[in-house]
């Protein structure tokens, strides 16, 4: 099997090497919320601010040319990572949330009417529910919910029926942030296209774990955030098929997105700039470019084997704890373990775990409809990244033992 040097990988992430509450070494298990950043990303952003800082796309001066080059190289790095046919199809946004809102407001809203339906799954993150709800409310369209099974997989038969019912659009996650389920998006997109339904994929949780090829998936739109794939916060991406993006009306108006402005009317720039009004998050884009290269250069087979090992180990260890129940047991999963205790509230458990240096997330994970469907107030979620280890799982299990002793 391919070898993965997890210690060397950990060495690249400074935030992992610290203690919290005086002397307790940190175990960071909140990667689905945001990942830590490798030194190459931190260095690249510092270099921009220290040596290249200037505005992009306008300056005739050297610094502005350097910054613009770095900015557009980053766009190419992102395009290469997801195998976009052209970097013009990589639109920079503030994050996955803004990418989804952009599609909802410029693609869906102008076309939707009272007879139309948008479909989302029952396990979407709020940011892949609310933008569609807003577009439906504004146009009289209907939002329909693709039902799920108790194990956190989609009810495929119900989905096929929904897609056959003259659906305008399907919006769904690639990987569930709450349960870790990997959805079979390639075959779902196939089925959707057979019915003429375009598909928007929320890729927030896939980028740090799966190779993503937007052309192989045949995704119409693919949205993600930099900060969940080892890049900075405040920067995200919307990929789209060229003709779809090119047909979108402008989203925000302002500088950088125009061709010519006069009070008689304004003409707009070509892609990608037409959808990127104002001074962009230049350092963020450049940092994201470094993160994209970092991910692209990984030995994916070796990383995958390591992540699988840690996830399986975590499943085994957690399943062996009396009174603990794993939530979400889909056969195809990434590095997320959601679980509950029979008699301890997730928040109480999380508070104790925090004092023991264990950074986990508790609550509804921005998936309230899913929690309601599963009849849970929330879960405790340990989410792993490529730098987590079996020892991290052991620390979690020790922590959970303390939680049970305190509340048992
Ligand atoms: N979708 C999913 C599945 C997510 O996990 C998240 C972030 N938790 C988002 C969308 C939104 O991403 P952001 O907050 O970076 O815009």
UniProtKB/TrEMBL annotation:
Main function: Catalyzes the removal of elemental sulfur and selenium atoms from L-cysteine, L-cystine, L-selenocysteine, and L-selenocystine to produce L-alanine.
Its EC number(s): 2.8.1.7
The entry's keywords: Pyridoxal phosphate, Transferase
Protein name: Probable cysteine desulfurase
InterPro entries: Aminotrans_V_dom, Cys_dSase_SufS, Cysteine_dSase, PyrdxlP-dep_Trfase, PyrdxlP-dep_Trfase_major, PyrdxlP-dep_Trfase_small
GO molecular function: cysteine desulfurase activity; pyridoxal phosphate binding
One Pfam family named in its UniProt record: Aminotran_5
Start and end residues of each Aminotransferase class V domain: 27-396
Catalysed conversion reaction: (sulfur carrier)-H + L-cysteine = (sulfur carrier)-SH + L-alanine
Domain of life, per lineage: Bacteria
